[in-house]
Amino acid sequence: MDSRLAADLTGLPDLLTAARDYAATVLDGLPDRPVAVPAPDVAPAPLPVTGAGASGALAEFRDRWAPGFSGSAGPRYLGFVTGGATPAALIGDWLTGTFDQNAVTRQDSSAVDLERETVAWLRELFGLSDAHTGTFVTGATMSNTVGLAIGREWLGEQRGVSVSRQGVGALGDIAVLSGAPHSSIYKALAMLGVGRDQLRTVQLLADREAVDVAALEEELRKGPAIVVANAGTVNTVDFDDLRAIAALKSKYAFWLHVDAAFGAFAALSPEHAELLAGLDLADSICVDLHKWLNVPYDAAVQFTRRRDLQVSVFQNTAAYLTLPSGDPDLFHLTPENSRRLRALAAWFSLAAYGAEGHREIVTRNIAAARRLGGRLAEIPGARLLSPVRLNVVCFGVDRDVPALLAAVASSGEAFLTPTVYQGVPALRAAFSNWRTQESDADRVITVLRDLLT
Question: Which of 133, 261, 292, 303 is the most exposed place for a label (fewest CB within 10 A)?
């Protein structure tokens, strides 16, 4: 055994303690750490020949790379829709690496059964019935890809072909319909061979990002299609009328995929749960977990009512693998043949805090978003572009948006991201971190006021 490797094995308890202590220092300093930092100019180092051992590697990381890392795990990182990692989720993530399970088969481990339990908990959390089965994937993009891949196979079923065997060319023309699709939907269609141009955007309701259901019905008259509905749009967290869309299934043939990447967590808010009425009627659903569940990257889940079609797409056959029958092993259900036990961090967080603990995070984030939205009126030249429906504040300013965002990031107080809403350059503040308080919204207001007045 290499001498450095042997020394690290002998000293592993002390090394883990050192890593724990360093991690604790980083986490303790999150409230005061600059939320975003300009990437420092770090010269690339040559490949180490002998290596410095784990302790030396930790020291090098701390000195060369850590100073350039953002405070994205902290309470005022409001860019994109980024959660953090609850204490229990962090423990789960550490133990995921410790046990290093290849969580795709029951042949040698109970890891798959732990994932099944976690999926069942999530299904209940989101108000879904047992008709939905689910599997962990890397994030919303892959969750959407899996759901649309199953929908593509369903289209083949309607036309008497098997896309998984004959290829997407056997389908002929494909119609994908959506009101305000997330960019990952276009990416998924490109990866699946369906093509970005096959997505037809449907008319929205006035001053909304929600689809006009009557306009959608007109499109559905043309034949079988895949419909991508939104449960929480990226700019304004608008929700399509899922129940009304699902009701159209009594008259038209279509696959209903719901992108509920972070909007699914509205189910935890008594005030907002009605927004998800009809979610259980979807054929496939995307939910991202490293957003509002606050587990470390990467983690998401996909649900579907048609596991049989899912297996048709993703099954993997080899002499050393189990057959895709009954309750199939997980390598028959997603693009990955091997992967880490992503479910463990989610299992820990749900086991530690339960539905009530996560409900408190969701309601507190919503309150912080409302506070920011309400206080924008105090700042000359700032204005809401849409009501604060859930946890995202979309607003405009009478200033150059990129310059303002750069100034906010340089202040170290917050990180926001840009967008364009109804043709207007805008800013987004997305609240989804378990540490965030209403006082953090006040700090963002302060820095915006300082920069805009």
Answer: 133
| Angle between the N-to-C axes of helices 53-60 and 3-10, in degrees from 0 to 180, rounded to the nearest 10 | 90
Cα separation, 78 vs 431, in Å, equals 6
Tell whether pTM > 0.85.
Answer: yes
Separation of alpha carbons 80 and 58, rounded Å: 29
- In three-state form (DSSP H/G/I as H, E/B as E, the rest C), the secondary structure along 1-26 is CCHHHHHHHHCHHHHHHHHHHHHHHH
The four Cα atoms 322, 323, 328, 329 give a dihedral, to 10 degrees, of 20
Residue range 25-98+353-453 forms a domain whose CATH class is: alpha beta
As a residue count, the chain comes to: 453
Task: Sort 37 into a burial class: Cβ within 10 Å, 0-12 / 13-18 / 19+.
Answer: middle
Are the C-beta atoms of residues 256 and 305 closer than 8 Å to each other? no
Does the structural domain 101-339 have CATH classification 3.30.420.40? Answer: no
Per residue in 23-38, pLDDT tens? 999 999 998 889 998 8
Q: What are phi and psi of 313, to 5 degrees?
A: -75, -45
Q: How many CA atoms lie within 13 A of 396 on its CB side?
A: 9
